[in-house]
Amino acid sequence: MTANDTMTRIEHVNCGWLHKPPLPPASCHCLMVLSGNSAVLIDTGIGMHDIVAPEQRIGSAAVDAAGFKFLPEVTAIRQLESRGMSASSVTDIVLTHCDSDHVGGLSDFPNARVHLASEEKVNLDAGNPRYTPRQFSHGPNWRTYSENNCEVLGLPSRRINTTFDLDIRLVPLFGHTNGHCGVAIHHNGAWIIHVGDAYYLRDELTNEDHPISGLATLRADNNKLRKESLEKLRQLTRRTDVDLTYFGYHDISELPDTITMYEDLA
Ligand SMILES: [Zn+2]
């Protein structure tokens, strides 16, 4: 454990809800890494600008297809403000990928450095229609990473540079999008891995034929790679010799019990 580990705390937060029946409600499970008055965010959920102008930012077809809910109180910026912080507290944002439900909060933190895999930035710049350019029109301060230069529990990874002296890595789990990554953080002697959308529901790790895999296949930039990434996670999470916490972005069962569920807010 480094001295910095003891000064840093990691909070699991939900920064947006999606609900399109008959699919179950889905979360936007982000992390706030907090130290003093500074914060690093892992993914950003639905942001204030999305709430003000959803059709312009996301498009009404996409809003309806995914069942976006627009609730100011769950945005990352409002949740940080409730902790006495502000937009300028966020020095760095690490993105799993650039889908609209993950990047909506970016423009609430226009001064943050935004870290992601080079492959994902190339995918965005190439105009992949899954992305919504208006969510990036403020001009994020991008930092891209292309080289696998270290490993996390046997998986190739890319160490990223934030203002925090904390070991944070992008872990390529390509397929959902061309540059989709998990984000691993070494904290208090153990690894935490946010797997992003490498699975939608945790049950996919144990059920090879989960009904949600139809949607996952439909949404994948590269379904072969998506399945390979999911298989890597299956193997990793079966290991009993490692101290690992993992979770995805959308499975509400992986949120802390303290978070109010969407149905209660309606
Ligand atoms: Zn997603």
Question: How does the SSE layout of this entry go?
Answer:
Elements: H1 3-7, E1 9-18, E2 26-35, E3 38-42, H2 48-52, H3 54-57, H4 60-66, E4 68-69, H5 76-81, E5 90-94, H6 100-103, E6 113-117, H7 118-125, E7 141-145, E8 150-152, E9 155-159, E10 167-172, E11 181-187, E12 190-194, H8 213-219, H9 223-238, E13 244-247, H10 262-265
Parallel strand pairs: 3-5, 5-6, 6-7, 12-13
Antiparallel strand pairs: 1-2, 1-4, 2-3, 8-9, 9-10, 10-11, 11-12
The structure holds zinc ion.
Zinc ion binds next to helix 6.
What can you see in these coordinates?
This protein is an alpha/beta fold and 266 residues long. The protein has one domain (3-254): Ribonuclease Z/Hydroxyacylglutathione hydrolase-like (Metallo-beta-lactamase, Chain A), CATH 3.60.15. Helix content is 25%, strand content 27%. The chain contains ten helices and 13 strands. The strands form two sheets. Strands 4-1-2-3-5-6-7 form a seven-stranded mixed beta sheet. A six-stranded mixed beta sheet has the order 8-9-10-11-12-13. The protein is globular, with a radius of gyration of 17 Å. The chain starts with a helix and ends with a helix. The model has no long low-confidence stretch (mean pLDDT 95). The structure holds zinc ion. Zinc ion (ZN) binds at residues 99, 101-102, 197, 249-250.
Q: Tell me the total number of β-strands.
A: 13
The total tally of domains equals 1
Q: Class, according to the CATH hierarchy? A: Alpha Beta
Radius of gyration (CA) equals: 17 Å
Strand content: 25-35%
Mean pLDDT: 95
Task: Say what the CATH topology is.
Answer: Metallo-beta-lactamase, Chain A
Main-sheet strand order equals 4-1-2-3-5-6-7
Secondary structure category: alpha/beta
According to CATH, the homologous superfamily is Ribonuclease Z/Hydroxyacylglutathione hydrolase-like
